[in-house]
Amino acid sequence: ARVGVLVSGRGSNLQALLDACAAADFPAEVALVISNVPGVKALDRADAAGVPHRVIPHRDYPSREAFDAELDRALRAAGVDIVCLAGFMRLLSSGFVTAWQGRMLNIHPSLLPSFPGLDTHRRALEAGVRLHGCTVHLVTPDLDAGPILIQAAVPVEDDDDEDRLAARVLEQEHHAYPRALRLLAEGRVRVEGKRAFLS
Ligand code: GRF
After folding, report:
1. How far does residue 24's CA lie from ligand 1's centre (Å)?
2. Could you say which of 27, 70, 100, 108 would form a disulfide bridge with 104 (CB–CB 3.0 to 4.6 Å)?
């Protein structure tokens, strides 16, 4: 499969996907990295891996739909068949999401359906949960609510702060995302209603 990765920042999950795709037996390759923010570290990572990358600044477009249309054009021009959102900090229009539904993954830093949205680690600490983690799910028009492929849990320690907890979760993200991409690329994901079934 040819994968397009959408990023906005640090790109550590992009790096995990690039590293996984570099293995000879991995069923996917990163065909294009797109950032909506110029100058971010994720673009350097794509460059270092020799992967095509471009910036599509959302500010250059009059509407969300116009920006998403350009994303769509760029992905199709690169022959992309699976899209991975990896720290991509823009909401996508329902038209774009529908066009890629079943072929678009997101990684979210909580055990969904707990803590959708932003500031997940702070909110997990405030809620006093003993388990936290990450989720890789298919993207549907409902934010952070699509069928779940993989979750990984980590303990919350009494002396955790946001940064320590985030680091523990991030380590799991870097394992979970390539595993989920492999499942999707190998056609081992079937969706029925809100659930994903893996074979
Ligand atoms: C990760 O925690 C991811 O789960 C969330 O945004 C963060 C991106 O980090 N969606 P990175 O850019 O992959 O390093």
Report:
1. 26
2. 100
* Domains: count for the chain: 1
Question: Rounded to an integer, what distance in angstroms lies between the CA atom of residue 14 and that of residue 95?
Answer: 25
H or E stretch at 29: strand 29-35
What is the pTM (predicted TM-score) of this model?
0.98
The answer to the question of residue 71 being in a domain is yes
Rounded to the nearest 10°, the torsion over CA 100, 104, 108, 113 is 70
Complex-level ipTM beyond the 0.85 threshold: yes
Which CATH number does the domain housing residue 179 bear?
A: 3.40.50.170
Amino acid, res. 33: V
Q: Which tokens sit at 84?
A: 């991975």
Ligand 1 pocket test: which of 6, 30, 107 has the largest number of ligand atoms within 8 Å of its C-beta?
Answer: 107
DSSP H/E element including 67: helix 64-77
CA distance 199 to 196: 10
Q: In this predicted model, what pLDDT tens digit does every residue of 114-128 receive, in sequence order?
A: 999 999 999 999 999
Closest residue by Cα to atom 2, ligand 1, is 109
Q: Residue positions in the annotated binding site?
A: 11-13, 64, 89-92, 106
Judge whether 105 lies within some domain: yes
Q: What's the CA dihedral at 115, 95, 28, 17 to 10 degrees?
A: -30
